[in-house]
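User: My collaborator sent over this chain with a note saying "see what the structure looks like." That's all I know about it. Can you take a look?
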Amino acid sequence: MTVRQVLGVREFRGMVIAQIASQAGDQIASVALALLVLNQTGSPLLAAGTFAVSFVPSLLGSALLAPLADRFSRRSLMLGADIGRAITVALIALLAVPGTPLWVLFALLFVSELFTPMFDSARMASIPDVLGTPSYVAAGTGLSRALNLINQAVGLFVGGLIVQLTSPRVALFLDALSFIISFAVLAVTLRERPSPLESTPSIKVLFADLTEGWTMLMRDPSRRAFVLLGWALAAPLVAPEAVALAYSKDNGEVDGWGGALMAGVVVGAAIGSVLIGRRALRVQLDLVLPLAVLMCLPLLVTGIEPPIPIVLVLWSLCGAAQAFLIPVMTFTTLLTPNEARGRVVGIAAAGFALFTTLGYLATGWVATLTSPAFAVVVMAVLGLAVAAIAYLLWPAASLRADIRRLEAVDV
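Assistant: Without extra context I'll predict from the sequence alone. Here is the result:
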């Protein structure tokens, strides 16, 4: 399955264009708001707090708002989220002047970011609706993940340039414009589909949906294995990025090398995501555990603190092996009934966000007590232990039955 084939689907092509526009705008705004806060306060802690404030709503909203993707039209949710984000980001830009209390900007940022998990859950749940056959869904998921990673790397770099050439307020207005572009593209290209379940504004029903989604996720051996593997490997997955800047400083290098190390992981992950997304479903399934092991092996070499260029290559290979997440995401989506897809995907995303946060904190804590290189090695050993347990408990029979069922409809 090729990228050209999935992009040949008009609806999915529109979703990709909307994803590029909105995610690039988000990265630009992240840099702009952090620099705005830093300029006004001179506090690196408060500047870093902007990233934390933008992350917390995604952590909470992925679980709490995901059931909406099963109760309401997914197209309408994406369009509504784009409008909500455009309005709140525009308000941030208008109020980003001296004298505005920071808590006002943070509150608006929090509200803006609440729309993101709702949009993402609806988008992920819509991919099988739009692409249909499992092989197309696998390729589309890989492409979507790769674009997300590329947007992170390019968006942050471009965001810094835009802020330097113009101002943080201009960058924030550009972010608001990116959501309007996303709205327009989706409105034109994405077809309206009825919600899988009856629409309801009841909070009680939504919490009941959330509980049911958790039960469905944990009772099914295949989905449970995929999701728990992704959660448990979150720490070694983010370990290189967590200490890249500190590792560079410890080795007497300029800060640019730290940025290059982070970019290497992201670029490697983007390439791996596209490559594995093109493979047959059975091949993807067979590669999940081997790639999980391969992700950790280059990190072990970090312990001997080789020259930075060698570390860059090793960490790029580690990033490429992170492609095991593509079949994890694809099969979790495909093996979930359409009427429960939003909440199950949302719960999986919320758990991954939680363990990713803990992974950053744990890696930073070990690096503070020892060294950045040793912290990466510790997380690599943890990842290998997780992979070993996964090999012992892997529900091979259940997964073989599931892959046969998916292959039967992949025509």
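A starting point for your reply to your collaborator: Residues 5 and 136 are 8 Å apart (CA to CA).
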